[in-house]
Amino acid sequence: MARRATWSQYRESIGDRSELFAAIADLVQVDHALYPGSYVDLSPSTAFASVTYVDTDDRAARFFADRDLVEQELAGRTRQGAGRQVEFLPADYTAPLDLEVASTDLLISLYAGPVSDHTRSYLRPGGWLLANTSHGDASLAALDPAWELVALVHHRDRRYRVTTDGLDQHLVPRRPELADPRRIRATGRGIAYTREAFAYLFQLR
To answer: Which of 30, 75, 84, 126 has its CA 20 to 30 A from that of 43?
Structure first.
């Protein structure tokens, strides 16, 4: 029988992203984060007080439904004040969610598709988007004047570093002719840049 999906098991394959979210918490004020396509990655709850996770995977639903297990997974791993509210929506984020408009401070888009296209309305004015280029979300944000790049996330040897240096040297397309939102959405792929980062932090203007 396959092992039950848990965050501790998931960390064995993707590593622990807690350091990433701790660095973001040190940089910007986040009280509530929204994490569409989360699977069982519980790491944002180690840094933020309230996180809503969204996924259609039944394994994720079973994991988050076990409140005792979630508490055990977070025990001893949270910053002061973090992990107070952990909510899970068994839903497709491309459809309307049972959330209030402008109710979240941070959208998390890691390997989940064009999250910001479908969930931007839940982000408060001046809120943030953490996105990578895997499925094009960071590339779409880079082309949208509504978003401003405010930080870079570097990942090496399973360690994360968030910096605000050299922003103007990033998100420069290797092939400018491919920097087309319609093409990015149609292919579901981000574009290549002259300098790459693991992820990018944008602020909604």
So the answer is: 126
